[in-house]
Design brief:
The chain is mainly α and 288 residues long. The chain has one domain. Helix 1 runs parallel beside helix 10, helix 6 packs across helix 8 and helix 6 runs antiparallel to helix 9. The longest helix has 28 residues. The mean pLDDT is 88. This is Lysylphosphatidylglycerol synthetase. InterPro entries: L-PG_synthase/AglD (IPR022791).
């Protein structure tokens, strides 16, 4: 495997620095002690439900990636795809200074099956793009409940233009994925809905009973901005802290829920250790 270049290392360490700096700022405003006190009062039922929904979202994400692989005539078995997905999560979350999860997938699939690295990369890129489109669509949809009626036409235009712009861009640059675009988007939409509900359950576990729409919008926005930090850590907490100045919710509760979501992500990312230790045995599906 090629050595990770210096530029990638610098970017990754910059993201870690941003996460640490943002968390430091947040905990200057909200003592970590307050967060831990809230955690001791967590409703375990809602916490478990949040974890289950998050896991479900990751499984559906695996099925979405499978669509893009199959468009390239790459027929990886679902179990192998799932194991590879969790291994990628592990690399992204716990080895930020090393090779990324997506890069490791490219390496393994190219090594095991001789698949084109360029095509694998394009599959992964469009998989991510589909997820980003779903996040943006959901933000606009939820905004209908937050903004005045006079803004509805603007939201509608943004929704339609953004969706079809992405479709035609995909058609022009990655025409091979046109046939799976809408199905992949439906998977992406479901993934984001499950994650939003997962976060709402975390809020409910901390006895939150209202303002779920604005919580959902901030949560989704943090997913977009997570690109500038390590695994979204720090950005999400900072956004909730800032949003609490304009909306009526307690920042310590939203920050506590945000950190719980990060902990759930970390927990399931650890599944990748199992596959790393016993080594993957990637298998293809039998095609007719």
């Amino acid at each position: 495997m090629e050595k990770v270049n210096l530029k990638k290392l610098l970017i990754n360490f910059a993201k870690i620095f941003i996460s640490i700096a943002l968390l430091y700022f947040v905990f200057q405003k909200i003592p970590f002690r307050e967060v831990t006190v809230l955690w001791t009062k967590t409703n375990v039922f809602y916490l478990v439900m949040a974890a289950i929904l998050f896991l479900a979202s990751q499984i559906i994400s695996t099925k979405r990636l499978e669509l893009y692989f199959e468009a390239n005539d790459f027929h990886l078995s679902f179990r192998s795809n799932l194991e590879l997905y969790f291994l990628g999560m592990f690399y992204n979350f716990f080895i930020p200074g090393g090779i990324g999860g997506d890069a490791y997938k490219v390496y393994l699939l190219n090594k095991n099956f001789g698949w084109s690295a360029k095509k694998i990369t394009s599959s992964l890129f469009n998989d991510r793009l589909s997820g980003l489109l779903a996040i943006c669509v959901l933000i606009l949809v939820f905004s209908f409940n937050l903004l005045e009626a006079k803004f509805f036409p603007i939201l509608f235009v943004l929704l339609v233009v953004g969706f079809f712009f992405t479709y035609f861009l995909t058609k022009k640059l990655f025409s091979i994925y046109t046939t799976v675009f809408f199905k992949a988007f439906s998977y992406s939409f479901l993934v984001q809905i499950l994650q939003v509900i997962s976060f709402i359950f975390l809020l409910k576990s901390l006895d939150v009973t209202d303002n779920f729409t604005i919580y959902a919008v901030v949560f989704l926005a943090s997913s977009v901005l997570s690109l500038i930090s390590f695994a979204g850590i720090g950005v999400r907490e900072m956004l909730f802290l800032q949003a609490s100045k304009w909306f009526s919710f307690q920042p310590e509760i939203s920050v506590s829920a945000s950190l719980l979501f990060t902990m759930i992500t970390a927990f399931f990312s650890l599944f990748g250790v199992i596959f790393q230790i016993r080594k993957l045995n990637l298998k293809l599906t039998e095609t007719p």
